[in-house]
Specification:
The structure is a homodimer. Chain A is an alpha+beta fold. In chain A, about 40% of the residues lie in helices and about 15% in strands. In chain A, the strands form two sheets. In chain A, strands 5-4-3-8-7-6 form a six-stranded antiparallel β-sheet, with helices on both faces. Chain A has two domains: about 70 residues, Orthogonal Bundle (Arc Repressor Mutant, subunit A); about 200 residues, GAF domain (Beta-Lactamase), CATH 3.30.450.40. Chains A and B meet through α1, α3, α4, β3 and β4 of A and α1, α3, α4, β3 and β4 of B. Chains A, B: Pfam families: HTH_IclR, IclR_C.
């Protein structure tokens, strides 16, 4: 890994639970030597990517990320365009909705909205990258990669985030087929135990996938009828989002049949998985 | 300059007029050799700080900056807090208002609002860093640095952005005294010809300066009465912004006297500058 990547990776150690990080903790969390980490932190701070709390000397994300984000939004206003759609979607389905953008082999969270209608709601971590193979957002996007890219990604060992993460390439290909048919992916407990989600791809020009919309629900509330309703809204909103961003939504997706309930790997058809020759 | 800084500086080449930059243009604009620039671009893209237009292969700012900005806003919601105040201020004074945050020896733009009530309005470039000595935002902040820091900054040659940029250390110290008295700075044509502005410091905990609010007006419209009115509103809004961010606003600022019109370096008292012994 290059010096630049090593430095930029330090920025990924921040999270909603870790607002400020001191030198010692950076060394511990990054498992790198103190002199190197200190040099990287100094350069990141010199460029405004970090700033130091004047009292504790601990580091936090700096104003440069705000300025660059504002510039990107001026040039390509994705957040501005997607935010109202994500809010609307979350209010219609009464659950946490989010949009994320492809960033190499992961999904980078962009906006989320929590309608706060239930006592128990999925908590969304804005700092956490979403893996392609273990989240409905990731798989919704992955399914529309060129086959050669999918082959390359499937050739690597797929991390089991939970007992139910699909890590077997042939089962993964079944999932991908399902996503290509309806433009939808449902997963239960695949990234985090107790969380189910439905994801739908967002496309740019030339039907190239650029991100995904998703709704995440506690698995205990993810009954088939509810999942079906969420899936239908996601199809609508993924198309809306694609059009709003100036992209082209594929004409090939089938309408959701009344008995659709995702793939055979989703929670509500779990019983079928164990049936031989199902 | 270190490798990391060299790579991060490439991100500063984007601007509202330059949304995408190809390799050749990066080489030309950065005046560095092609192999190095290419390696830096590749690492920045691998980490999501850049992404490539799939058609032209040109680079643009990537989704990582949006994610990190969203995280910083979750942890320290400055944009969310300052945006409504900046909008309100711009509507009250009918001119472009903006907030910026200190980033080392420059000000990093955070939010701006243009009430669009005049045919001619100051254009605000969200990508451009504001120098401390040549902008009212910068001087409003600089005036509250420790004296030793001010001495260090004054010891460097001060860039003349226009014929009217104050680059003489003793005149600069007069300006700083004025800012310390009222918590306000006015400048005319100091950063850009034809643009006047009034700036006011925003403070964090312990009255430490963290940023500035400012209003920018075409110099042709910056009559003394209007400047006075803007200055009064800025005093109010800088205090509001400081309180909203959890900071402490100094109690030492004097109320604006009716005849206040900035310092002797502002446009409306320009005549006095040429009066001997004025």
């Amino acid at each position: 890994m290059g010096t630049i990547s090593k430095a930029l990776e330090l920025l990924d150690l921040f999270s909603p639970d870790r607002a400020e990080i001191g030198l010692t903790d950076f060394v511990r969390l990054s498992k790198r030597d103190k002199a190197t980490v200190h040099r990287h932190l100094t350069e990141l701070a010199q460029n405004g990517f970090l700033e130091q709390n004047p009292d504790s000397r601990a580091y936090r994300l700096g104003p440069a990320v705000l300025r660059l984000a504002a510039l990107r939004e001026t040039l390509f206003p994705m957040r501005k365009i997607l935010q109202p759609l994500v809010i609307e979607l979350s209010e219609i389905v009464g659950e946490l909705a989010h949009a994320s953008l492809l960033q190499n082999d992961e999904m980078s969270p962009l906006v989320h909205a929590d309608p706060k209608v239930h006592g128990i709601q999925v908590h969304f971590d804005v700092a956490e990258m979403l893996p392609l193979h273990a989240t409905s957002s990731g798989l919704a996007a992955l399914a529309f990669f060129p086959d050669a890219t999918i082959d390359r990604l499937m050739a690597r060992p797929l991390k089991k985030h939970t007992a139910r993460t699909v890590a077997d390439p042939s089962r993964m290909r079944d999932l991908i087929e399902g996503v290509r048919q309806y433009g939808l992916c449902t997963l239960a407990d695949a990234f985090e135990d107790g969380v189910s989600s439905v994801g739908a791809p967002i496309f740019g020009q030339g039907c190239r996938v650029i991100g995904a919309l998703a709704v995440a629900v506690p698995t205990s509330r993810a009954a088939p009828r509810k999942t079906h309703e969420i899936a239908g809204q996601l199809q609508r909103y993924a198309r809306k989002a694609t059009v709003a961003l100036g992209g082209a939504y594929p004409k090939t997706f089938e309408d959701l049949p009344p008995n659709w309930s995702g793939t055979k790997f989703t929670v509500h058809r779990e019983s079928k998985e164990t049936e031989p020759n199902a």
